[in-house]
């Protein structure tokens, strides 16, 4: 007898918060559910000043509120773009969003940051097959930092069942 166990990742929400409207603002930031099987995230951050120099990525899991879980890493964006193998955790998350964004170029980031139609199917494969995570509710929080000041926070909420 063969038992097949399958997991499924699903977006539940996305929130984009600009901290300095003189530095940046979000033109759009949403989770779109086209039908029961196709959801995607899109966001566009307009940069009024440049460059974004650092990104901090934190992973949280829900245990009576969201608690830190496994990862809390910061990278210098320019150094990371020169050698992505330096930080394997950030590389894993970068590989998730890179095909659907304009962040896959060298420094400086002096144009609007865009994530366009990041589909759930692609994330489902990454979080269940490539690097399996335990079931639960998750929050991936990204802090976008320039001149040592957090300029924006983007929060991706999801469930792995």
What does this structure look like?
- By secondary structure, the protein is of the alpha+beta class.
- It has one domain: Ganglioside GM2 activator (Ganglioside M2 Activator Protein, Chain: A, Distorted Sandwich), CATH 2.70.220.
- The chain has 3 helices and 8 strands.
- It has helices spanning 77-82, 88-97, 120-130; strands spanning 9-18, 24-33, 39-47, 54-62, 66-76, 113-119, 136-146, 149-160.
- The protein is globular, with a radius of gyration of 16 Å.
- InterPro entries: DUF1091 (IPR010512).
Summary keywords:
three-stranded antiparallel sheet; DUF1091; 3 helices; 17% helix; Ganglioside M2 Activator Protein, Chain: A; 161 residues; alpha+beta
């Amino acid at each position: 007898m063969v038992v097949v166990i399958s997991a499924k990742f699903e977006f539940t929400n996305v929130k984009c918060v600009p901290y300095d409207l003189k530095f940046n603002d979000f033109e759009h930031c949403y989770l779109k559910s086209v039908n029961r099987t196709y959801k995607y995230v899109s966001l566009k951050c307009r940069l009024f000043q440049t460059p974004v120099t650092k990104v901090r990525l934190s992973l949280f899991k829900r245990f009576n509120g969201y608690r830190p879980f496994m990862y809390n890493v910061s990278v210098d964006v320019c150094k990371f773009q020169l050698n992505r193998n330096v930080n394997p955790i950030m590389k894993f998350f970068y590989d998730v969003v890179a095909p659907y964004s304009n962040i896959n170029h060298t420094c400086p980031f002096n144009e609007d940051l865009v994530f366009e139609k990041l589909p759930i199917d692609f994330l489902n494969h990454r979080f269940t097959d490539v690097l399996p995570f335990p079931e639960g509710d998750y929050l991936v929080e990204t802090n976008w930092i320039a001149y040592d000041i957090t300029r924006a926070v983007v929060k991706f909420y999801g469930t792995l069942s």
